[in-house]
Structure formats: structure tokens, C-alpha cells
Amino acid sequence: MCGLVGYTGKQARHREILQKMMERIIHRGPDSSGEFIGDGVAFGFRRLSIIDLEGGSQPIYNEDGSVVTVFNGEIYNFQTLRAELEEKGHVFTTNTDTEVLVHGWEEYGEGLAERLRGMFAFLIYDKNRNVIYGARDYFGIKPLYYYRTDEGNYLFGSEIKSFLEHPEFRKRLNKRALRPYLTFQYSSLDETFFEGVYKLPPAHYFTLALGDGANEMKTVRFWDEDFSEVPGNFDKYVEEIDRTVHESVEAHRISDVKVGAFLSGGVDSSYITACLMPDKTFSVGFDYNKFNETDYAKELSDRLGIENYRKLITADECFDALPDIQYHMDEPQSNPSSVPLYFLAKLAREHVTVVLSGEGADEIYAGYEWYDETPLMRKYKKIPQFLRVAAADAAKRLPYFKGHDFIIKSSGRPEDYFIGQALVWHDKEALRVLKPDYRVGPSALEVTAPIYARVKGKPELDKKQYLDMNLWLPGDILLKADKMSMASSLELRVPFLDRVVMEQAEKIPHEYKINGKNTKYIFRKAANKTLPDEWADRKKMGFPVPIRYWLREKKYYDIVKGYFTSDYASEFFDTEELMKVLDEHYAGKANNGRRVWTVFTFLVWYKRFFIDETV
């Protein structure tokens, strides 16, 4: 696990620029650094030592030094790939997983990425071909950003903040990003909140030919999810799930340093913990009413004979840490669970360098309640579809009213209503509070339409899962997992988000996943083979955060009010409308907690990068 930076173009101060860029991401790799400076190409690297502690420093080169790579992540099948490449005559000089990339590029070319099993973002420069090749893993576990400068050069990095140190970077706010953010609570576009900075999408590689008249990037998708149910025996599917999960956990435990586990007490993290059986687990909760489930984590740890470390977080700690959290996120991210995850990673890093966690199970095994239909919706769907579609079309044209979402959801087309697991500000509400210059971004449905187009004609459940796998998972869940763990120099691994696990799970029949009684039903049955029954059937809690209650306390209301009434807030928002939303919540007249938090988070982020930051 590390952080990488890179750029093209000739600079008089290569080493100084690289050093400053690397210093911005030193938290990703505090153990060592490395650099490559070539003719018009420069790579930098910060290392967190996990495998081959003595010999794994980067950059890594091939035999004659003509191919060089910097790499962030872990390749779990590197030993198999190494054996294949050695049979073909390639000579290895280290024991690190990174070295398979340079020899794999020589052997497989652009087909390298699809041969890898793991989480990865990397850059390879081939001097002889004068080309840069880079790729990002199947699910988007590891981030990779790029930016084309006004001078025609490219910047690359694990984190956007490293670009701030490059003389050709122009820091400008992307006006199109704010409108969809208010609905999704995260940055949902390929172009980030920094104008011209793009995310390389998951399961994509790029090639960048250098030299006169070249310098154009080509991106290619090398893999895709395929939810296509295959009929089969229920018990056989249970056995297959249990086998693939255990095998994935074994692959993900490879390390030369201590490995622990995050444990919330829910089925996902509990299953991973019971498969891994680490020495230590880590849990956090809040010192507020019912927002503390650490007792469940402690109980399971005790049953398994594992030492559990836990921490209760206060509201003061959360508000104090929020600017730092948003700095590490690079873009505004208002999922409240970012806050406990930040503190959980800090706690774990006091004891271990690597943790396994349960992200991804809800997306691949259909665990979210939104995937199921309520009893009322099932009754409503007995009405002829043409009448339901007509009612939904009428509801779309009307201002928001109680029952608005229900009517649209029951029309039968996820494309018309399902945007993933977060819906904070309805689009019409967002437009009302935004200033005209910031209404230019796409609506939520315009963001989701190209993704739905790839699964046209598929069943409803497949469409919903596919959308979440391609929008919510990389844009929210995995991005905060990476950034919050790396803020504490902690490597976080996610065994459910493994290509082998996914390719087994996507075949599971719908009725085995959702059966009217529970979501991810068959997954729970598989987990029962390792866990006590009550754990496998526990209701999902995630990381509940008491923001609704905090924002009704004067101390925290005043903090938010200070941001809402600031001069820079009026650049983006009708601040009178914002204060109405805040005051209604404070007075208990409405539950606007998530809306308030989403705007507040954006303003905290903006202040950190555009007001406090002088670069």
C-alpha cells in the first residue's frame, strides 16, 4: 500500500517538484520514498511496507531498466503470475508483488490488467515504446486521478492534493459538480470538484503515447460485472459462497506485518473476522443514546477468543476533525460514516498496519433494503402498469409532495427513480438553494442514465445492483474507505470485493438473494456456517451517526450557522434558504439533518482547499 504521483513534460526542477508532490501524500507511505526521472516523464512513490519489507522499494524496473512502474495496492495472485513469467524467461530481483507488473507488461501488454487479482492503481512507463500504461482495479478500491495541463502535459496521482504542488496545475472549482453532489452526498461525476481533474474509472486502463504529435490518452474498460442468474440448488450455492469467501480471506491475509479486522457486529464484518481469526479487532461507536453497537463486537470477539479494541467518539471530536477529514477525502464527502471510519482507522493503526473489512457484501449479494419491495408496494403493483406509469409521469412534473417517491418507485423502472443508496436533496430542492451559476451540473437521473444504458433489458434487481456497483460503491463506500484508512497510514483490504467472489455471486438466482423475509438471504445462510445464527440474521446498522441530534444542540448549530452565513457560502447558495432549512431542523419542525450536513460538509471542504489553502 502506497501513494504514487507522476507527470509528463520537461521541468527544470524535477526533483524539487516530485519531492513536494510526494510530501503531500506522505501519510499514504511514511516508511520510504522513491523516484524516477526520465526524458519528459517523472514518477514518485511513498511506501507503506507490507510485503518484502527490505526489498520492496519502488520504483521497480525490468532487467534492463527500460520499463519502470509505481504501484499502489496489493496483487493477491502475484505468486502464480510470477511463476508463469519466470517460465517464460523473465528474471525477478525482489520478492514483492509489484515486480510482476513490469514483466507482465512486457509479456501481456495492454492485457496485463485483466490478469491481476487484487486492488490496484499503477503507472508503467516503457522507454522503448515511449508510452505510459496505467490501470485501476475492478471495483475502484484504489484511486487514480489525472489532469491535463494547459501546456498539454499530464499529472497523475493517488490523491488530488499532490497536484497542488505542480507548477502547471490550475486550481479551479468545477461548477458542474455541486448540483449532483447535493443529491448523492458524494462526487458522482468522472470529473472531480477540481476542474479538469478526472478519476480513472474502475476496471479501466489507459495508454498515453508520448512524443511529438502524440500525448493523447486512450482509456479502455477491461472488465465488467455481469449479473445473470443461473438456476441451481440452494444448498450448493451456499457451499460455493462459503468456499469463495474463505478462499478470498486467505488470499487477502498475505502480509509480512500484523493484520487485524474492523468489526461492527453486523454480519459482513463478523463473517470476515470469523474467517480471518485475527489477533485483534477494532470497533467504534458514539457516546450518544443508541448510537453505540460496540458491545456486539466485543461479545463476538470474546466468543472467538480475539482481543477487541474500541473507542467511543464525542461530538466535539467529530466537529474538530471534520476539516482534516475533508482534506484527506480530496473532494466533499458527506456520508456521515466517514467520521467514525476516520477514528476507527486511527485506533487500528496504533496496533496493526493492515485490516480486513466487510465493504461490498451489500452490493454483490443484494443486502440493501432498497433492493426489496415493501408490502405496500407489492399491493400497489397490482394496478395495471400503464396506469402506474402515467401516475409516475405526472408526479415527475409536480413539485415534491408526500408520496411523490412512492408513486415513481412503483412505476416499475429503476431508471425513473433509483439513483443508488443515497438521496439527500431532491433535484428540485437543490435547484432552489443553488445560485444560477451552480445549477449547470447534471441531474441525478442524467448521471445514472449512461450506467443504466449498459444493462438495458435486465431485471430490476440486476439494474439496481449494477448501478450501485458502478456509482455508489466506487464513489462513496470505497473512496472513503481508502482515504480514511490512508489518512492514518493503514492498509484496508476488502475480501468481498474480489473478482473470483464477484463472478460467483453474480450468478445467484434472485429468489435466493431476496425472498420477502430478508435481503442477501443466501449470504446469511452461508455466514451461518461460520457464525452464530443471531449474527448472520442481525439487522444492518452500518455506522449510524447522531448528526440529527447534534444539529439540535446550540453549540453545533452555531458552528454550522457560521459556515452557512459566511461570505463564501453566498457564492454558491441562497443563504436565506439555507438558514430556513437549518432553523427548521434546529426547532424540531423537520428532519433536515442530512441536508444540512451535506451543505455543511461542502463548505468545510471548500474553506479548507480554497480559503485556507494558499497554493
Provide an overview of this structure:
The protein folds into three domains: 2-184 and 192-221, Aminohydrolase, N-terminal nucleophile (Ntn) domain (Glutamine Phosphoribosylpyrophosphate, subunit 1, domain 1); 234-367 and 468-536, 3-Layer(aba) Sandwich (Rossmann fold), CATH 3.40.50; 547-611, no CATH class. The longest helix has 27 residues, at 460-486. Helix 2 (78-87) crosses helix 3 (99-108), helix 8 crosses helix 25 (593-611) and helix 9 packs across helix 16. With 615 residues, it is an alpha+beta fold. Strand 13 (259-262), helix 6 and strand 14 form a beta-alpha-beta unit. The model has no long low-confidence stretch (mean pLDDT 93). The protein starts with a strand and ends with a helix. It is globular, with a radius of gyration of 24 Å. The chain contains 25 helices and 17 strands. The protein has a six-stranded antiparallel beta sheet, with helices on one face.
